[in-house]
Amino acid sequence: MLERLQLTLDYTFKKIFADNLKILIDLINAILEFPSSSKIECIEIRNPAILPEDIHKKYIILDIVAYDNRDRQYNIEMQAAKFDTYPDRAAYYLSGLFGSQLDRGEDYSLISPVFGLHFLNYIQYPAYPDDFHFNFSLRDSNLKVG
Questions:
Q1: Beta carbons of 35 and 29 less than 8 angstroms apart
Q2: Are the C-beta atoms of 40 and 67 separated by less than 8 Å?
Q3: Residue 81 DSSP symbol
Q4: Is residue 21 part of a domain?
């Protein structure tokens, strides 16, 4: 008897899309509905484990990074199990992408925005069970800048 693979399992998700990057690019572009000037063009399957620099730091698994035609980075994640602090984890992973853009001596004006696209196998916000797209941003809410 054949078993069905669960796409929501991290291993299955990575295995299927690592061998079919064009399909993953098309999926991401369809979900994001960006104009052609912002389409995802490149996917990088990174070493899935990012070891901490210090033994007391968190161990990060950064699965898939996509790049659009303006070289902005997108962290692509599949999350099967629900946990309450997932939004914090997502922000932490994005901060890793954000903070890794510059080399010593480079100007901060070179930093590009980073984005997260997270496929969740559960409802993260039960108060909004019919919503599947949430947009969070880091900005000054009073000055409307950022």
A1: no
A2: yes
A3: S
A4: yes
* Terminal C-alpha separation, the chain: 54
As a dihedral over the C-alpha atoms of residue 96, residue 14, residue 7, residue 71, rounded to 10 degrees, the angle is: 50
Is 29 a member of any domain? yes
Q: What is the DSSP string of 4-15?
A: PP-TTSHHHHHH
pLDDT tens-place string over residues 103-144: 999 999 999 989 999 888 888 888 888 877 777 777 777 776
Q: Which residues contact 130 (CB under 8 A, 6 or more apart)?
A: none
Cβ–Cβ contacts within 10 Å for residue 89, how many? 15
Work out the number of other CB atoms within 10 angstroms of the CB of residue 124.
17
Tokens of 130: 């019919």
What digits encode the pLDDT tens for the residues 51-86? 556 555 655 554 689 999 888 999 988 888 888 898
Q: Is 117:32 a contact under the CB 8 Å cutoff?
A: yes
- CA-CA distance, 47 to 102, in Å (whole number)? 20
Counting the structural domains of the chain, the total is 1
| Interatomic CA distance for residues 81 and 120, integer angstroms | 8
Is residue 39 a part of any domain in this protein?
Answer: yes
